[in-house]
DNA sequence: CGTATTCTTGACAACTTTCAATGCGGGTGG
DNA sequence: CCACCCGCATTGAAAGTTGTCAAGAATACG
């Protein structure tokens, strides 16, 4: 909740309204599909601890992860207006979540226009991250993609207090990382070695350590503007 | 306006409120940057005629288009909650637009929760399209990406009455098409020839004709679920 | 009618995938 | 306690897809 607050200035009465609506917490194991594509929804999920991912499968078994959620993210708030998701939602690690029933969200959106805009902002921020991933997937080379995602995750985790300076836990496999980047696990492995040998960053054993942030950002052409870290006043 | 209505059931009073807020229409030439990344916004753009694109530039001159807008789309409604855009907005063709000042949108969101949710839905639909593009860019081969985008555009244009059955105007260059697909113009050219020679679709002279929709959809693994064409009841 | 884009094609290069094999480490059962 | 397994990481070699470069053809436009 503190984490959610950081991104969207919320008044005491608004926070109370939201808190009243939330159910849980609930715990989930890793690798569990939490929401299935197309299934009708009646609540949305706030991630408290762990990592979630949005992904889609192709018929030949390939998978593309389209977003990684960090603690404080409303993972499928868009499901509230969409009714169902176009993608699956899976736990990458063991997770703790809270649920906001859509009836409760409806009540909030009818009574708290400002809080509604804060929610709306949150889904728009997700969309902005999707766009940056499109740029990576479409135009950046493998090593640049990897560097960019590491920069993004470090920035986002720092905001919610889940990074210790230039190091943070990222307990996912190289294959999962590859599924974010539109690459194969084999190639990601090579690229991570390159980053390590260049002294830029080290991702091993479920932990990332960034040794040369400027270098990594330069390689990735990382510009955090799209993360809207200077949250708007509205 | 009729087109907007098709995607979001809007009551008479809501429609009137929106109409009262809209300014314009304004006309723009092709290839004009309408909104620049990072610039503070005080109105959002409703596309009435023509095609707009969201894009980002890289330092080496590469460009990635992250979204194509068709008539009826609110092109930068997300700018209302975000304050500024993370991308540029450009006209691909001559365009006619209307503008919704954010002061007006603020008034609407304070008075019409249901219309607010309709707006919110609209930005969530954009995000869904971003996700599908991530899948294309990350996992589909060049010819599949091209086929998928043609299917998507045909579906979306059909909804707003801008497609004539299996044919529709798409007055953009192969290079611009390539910028959507994360490919080079040269390769798009080859891929379009393949689609033509396979009897699937023909994109030439600013017009697309789909000769074998099932074949094209099969090649692309196109599933329109992500377009939320069965709009939700809320 | 001439000029500038855009389209088209070929040959070659670069990047990433595929296939295959080996190493590593943690958990489990004997 | 230790051997065995199994998933994950790592590496090499070969193949495939897409990009780059270059040139000529077609088309649009003034």
Automatic annotation (TrEMBL), chains A, B:
Give me the segments passing through the membrane.
none
Query: SUPFAM superfamilies, from UniProt?
Result: cAMP-binding domain-like (SSF51206), Winged helix' DNA-binding domain (SSF46785)
UniProt superkingdom: Bacteria
* Presence of the UniProt keyword Cell cycle in the record: no
Q: InterPro entries of this UniProt entry?
A: cNMP-bd_dom, cNMP-bd_dom_sf, HTH_CRP, RmlC-like_jellyroll, WH-like_DNA-bd_sf, WH_DNA-bd_sf
According to the entry, every stretch annotated as the HTH crp-type domain falls at: 140-214
A Pfam family of this chain: cNMP_binding
MF-aspect GO terms: DNA binding
Cited CDD domains: CAP_ED (cd00038)
Q: Which GO terms describe its biological process?
A: regulation of DNA-templated transcription
Record's keyword terms, sorted: DNA-binding, Transcription, Transcription regulation
Please report the name of this protein according to its UniProt entry.
Answer: CRP-like cAMP-binding protein
According to its UniProt entry, this protein's organism is Sphingomonas kyeonggiensis
């Amino acid at each position: 909740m503190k984490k959610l607050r950081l991104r969207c200035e919320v008044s005491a009465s608004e926070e109370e309204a939201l808190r009243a609506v939330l159910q849980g917490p609930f715990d989930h194991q890793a690798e569990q599909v939490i929401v299935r594509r197309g299934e009708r929804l009646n609540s949305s999920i706030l991630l408290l601890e762990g990592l979630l991912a949005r992904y889609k499968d192709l018929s030949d078994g390939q998978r593309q992860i389209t977003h990684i959620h960090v603690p404080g993210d409303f993972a499928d708030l868009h499901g509230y207006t969409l009714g169902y998701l176009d993608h699956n939602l899976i736990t990458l690690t063991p997770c703790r979540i809270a649920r906001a029933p859509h009836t409760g969200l409806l009540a909030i959106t009818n009574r708290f226009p400002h809080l509604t805009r804060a929610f709306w902002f949150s889904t728009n921020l997700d969309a902005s991250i999707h766009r940056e991933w499109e740029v990576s997937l479409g135009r950046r080379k493998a090593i640049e993609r990897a560097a960019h995602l590491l920069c993004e995750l470090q920035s986002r985790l720092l905001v919610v207090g889940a990074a210790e300076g230039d190091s943070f836990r990222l307990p996912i496999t190289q294959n999962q990382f590859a599924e974010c980047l539109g690459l194969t696990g084999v190639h990601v492995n090579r690229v991570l070695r390159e980053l390590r040998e260049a002294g830029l960053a080290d991702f091993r054993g479920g932990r990332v350590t960034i040794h040369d942030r400027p270098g990594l950002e330069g390689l990735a052409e990382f510009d955090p503007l799209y993360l809207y870290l200077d949250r708007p006043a509205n």
